[in-house]
């Protein structure tokens, strides 16, 4: 089955630690996105990538980093510089820069 | 930039009744308006979308209307069922997922 997978589903981190969230897709999509979801707020764009080896900052990129070495993979690193990292993180992909976004199941990150 | 407001934040209806969720947007250049449904613990899934050259679109029990002059669009769900219970998000973009802006979401509860 084609789709997007995110792992882990739940992640706990101590303050001051970096942590990497995985996002893999087998839809052969060119574009991939990372969103952050907080209670009572809409999804906010962290980073996006339209092609391998290229990515751009979204609205709230500070404290995050990404890489796009393979078409299928778009990992997100939450660094210690992110002041309030506890949130639900969603990865999405599309076949182009527009059109229906397919979302993964999300990773809930909690900083202890 | 674009700003999307969504109302109400919570909505409770009896099974079989209709539900209406409303969104307003600020940028008249926006031309693509998708609606997503997010079930508990899952990523959002596109349920219907509309483009600015259309005033209304319907898909079985779900319909979306768009008023470009007033810059608002609405989701209508008729004959609601318990499985319609979820969080619904509206969004607006100028045709590019990189500038997609999401509403804060509406938690719909359908009581059997």
Could you outline the blueprint of secondary structure elements for this entry?
The complex is a heterodimer of chains A (112) and B (112).
Chain A: E1 4-7, E2 10-13, E3 19-25, E4 31-37, E5 44-51, E6 54-57, E7 64-66, E8 76-78, E9 87-94, E10 102-103, E11 107-111
Chain B: E1 4-7, E2 10-14, E3 19-25, E4 32-38, E5 45-51, E6 56-59, E7 62-67, E8 72-77, E9 86-92, E10 101-102, E11 106-111
Parallel strand pairs in B: 2-11
Antiparallel strand pairs in B: 1-3, 3-8, 4-5, 4-9, 6-7, 7-8, 9-10, 9-11
User: What string, H for helix and E for strand, traces the elements of chain B in order?
Assistant: EEEEEEEEEEE
Largest sheet of chain B: 6 strands, mixed
Helical proportion of chain A, percent range: under 10%
Oligomer: heterodimer
- Structural class call of chain A reads mainly beta
Q: List segments of chain A where confidence is low: pLDDT < 50 over at least 5 consecutive residues.
A: none
**What's the main sheet of chain A like?**
7 strands, mixed
Beta strand % of chain A:
over 45%
Largest interface: A-B, 25 and 26 residues
The overall average pLDDT of chain A, rounded, is 93
Shape, principal axes of CA atoms of chain B: globular
């Amino acid at each position: 089955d084609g789709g997007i997978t995110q792992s882990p589903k739940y992640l706990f981190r101590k303050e001051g630690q970096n942590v990497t969230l995985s996002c893999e897709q087998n839809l052969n999509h060119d574009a991939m996105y990372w969103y952050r979801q907080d209670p009572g707020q809409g999804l906010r764009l962290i980073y996006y990538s339209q092609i391998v080896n290229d990515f751009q900052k979204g609205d709230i990129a500070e404290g995050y980093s990404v890489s796009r070495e393979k078409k299928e993979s778009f990992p997100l690193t939450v660094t210690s510089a992110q002041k309030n990292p506890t949130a639900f993180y969603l990865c999405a992909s599309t076949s182009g820069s527009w059109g229906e976004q397919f979302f993964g199941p999300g990773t809930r990150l909690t900083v202890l | 930039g674009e700003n999307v407001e969504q109302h109400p934040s919570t909505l409770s209806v009896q099974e079989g009744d209709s539900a209406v969720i409303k969104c307003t947007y600020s940028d008249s250049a926006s031309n693509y308006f998708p609606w997503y449904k997010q079930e508990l613990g899952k990523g959002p899934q596109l349920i219907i979308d509309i483009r600015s050259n259309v005033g209304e679109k319907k898909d079985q029990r779900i319909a979306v209307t768009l008023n470009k002059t007033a810059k608002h669009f609405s989701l209508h769900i008729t004959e609601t069922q318990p499985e319609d219970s979820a969080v619904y998000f509206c969004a607006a973009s100028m045709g590019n997922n990189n500038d997609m802006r999401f509403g804060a979401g509406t938690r719909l509860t359908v009581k059997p």
